[in-house]
Amino acid sequence: MTSIIDISIGQLLLALVFILLAQLSSFIFQLSLHRDIAIGTVRTFAQLFLMGYVLTYILHSDSVFLVIGVFVVMVSSAIFIIKGRVNEKQVAYLLPTFITMLLSYFVTAVFVSGLIIGSSPWWEPRYFIPAGGMVIGNSMSALAISIERFFKDLRQERELVEMKLCLGAGYREASAEQFRAAVKAGMIPSINAMMGVGLVFIPGMMSGQILAGADPMIAIRYQIVVMLMLVGATAVSSVSVMLLIRRRCFGSGEELLLTKE
Amino acid sequence: MAPILEIRDLSFTYEGAQSPIFEHLSLAVEEGSHILLKGASGTGKSSLLRLICRLASPTSGTILYRGEPITAISPPKLRSAIGYVAQIPRMTDGSVKENLLLPFTFALNRERRKPDEDALRRMLSDFYLDDLKLTHPALKLSTGQQQRLALMRTLLLKPDLLLLDEPTSALDALSARMVFTIMERLNTREQKTLVTVTHSDYRPSGAHVELYLLQNRTLTRQP
């Protein structure tokens, strides 16, 4: 296999042609996007160069603490993104979500990098950080969908939940339907991805490996591991987070605390 | 003998509200009586019923069921003993029979003897629902029919005390009369204790009917 062709700064700047085309479209059709496109371009350069330097440093690091530190920072960033999407004020769901994510994604990343890929040591940053990044990124979206759906359904179907409570149901029985619907809603995208992979789209990681000169037959194996990891991690983290959050939606008298907005 | 339900010095403030909706309420409900709770909208009548079955928590005060604080009873057990029927009946997406037997699917009630189809049909007839098939989708019924089904469903758990929140407010005159008749029968013939929140001028028959008015945050007995 050939190694990857380097992109020189001059060649990199040539890619700005695409931005020029976008700016032209904005100018001709008065889309008023020129400012956002300009800021976006600068940010893309700045953020990715910064990330490049950070990754170069981390990938050459032999400190397990640094690698785990980066992992914790990644999970912390994910929790802020979830917080932004869910926007819930009545139930304190962030701490249980954070702890579950931290534990379940850590176990997943260790399992994939140390056991399936068999890197040595298990925290070898070249494998551990990308595995962690993918599981956090994908599962985070699933969690945000599940949590948001659960709160929304419990609010909308409050009377139905209370009707069941009043007929002797425990809080788990009364909210079983909403629980199932929420976990399913979060899991469906990663299951659908398994259906379409290789037919409808070539996943980013695999494309990256092929561009970097890897044998496609090796790249697909990595991709299969990633797809399976995502489904498993999403299921485990969604169910665990929802179990913890559900209890917090009900008070000491097993009464539903969420009120309609 | 201790009253079946006793409310002591009960105050309740909605979450985020400045002043209480009612305060220092006390009431003793004797077994077999029928308490009618009246009062203008927003005086907290429905909230009072919700506090009794622990769908909400009081700001202060105590509620006793058969002499025991309700907070000492497991919530599902309490709610099986106290039948609460909400103002707007809720049905699940299933048949009439599935809805009636819904309480028996919950862990607490699984040991109870389920009524068979004949018993359910007899009960439907008692509730003026003779024409209704057990296989009929419950969500397609009128509100009046659903209200009677909701009452039936609660009664299948054989509660000692029934809390009815404006059981006829969403019903036409004919359905309302049917529900009133059923309520009177439950109280006088089956000796059920009833606490009914109502807006109407309805005054049920029966020897133990007591009328209370909730206004200006306090509860007063009416002649």
Automatic annotation (TrEMBL), chain A:
Keywords: Membrane, Transmembrane, Transmembrane helix. Pfam families: UPF0014 (PF03649). It is found in: Membrane. Its main location: membrane. PANTHER family: PROTEIN ALUMINUM SENSITIVE 3 (PTHR30028:SF0), UPF0014 INNER MEMBRANE PROTEIN YBBM-RELATED (PTHR30028). Belongs to the UPF0014 family. This is Iron export ABC transporter permease subunit FetB. The lineage of its organism: Bacteria, Pseudomonadati, Chlorobiota, Chlorobiia, Chlorobiales.
UniProtKB/TrEMBL annotation, chain B:
Keywords: ATP-binding, Nucleotide-binding. The keyword ATP-binding applies. InterPro entries: AAA+_ATPase (IPR003593), ABC_transporter-like_ATP-bd (IPR003439), P-loop_NTPase (IPR027417). The keyword ATP-binding applies. One of its GO terms (molecular function) is ATP hydrolysis activity. It comes from the Bacteria. Residues 5-223 form the ABC transporter domain. PANTHER family: ABC TRANSPORTER I FAMILY MEMBER 17 (PTHR43423). This is ABC transporter. It comes from Pelodictyon luteolum.
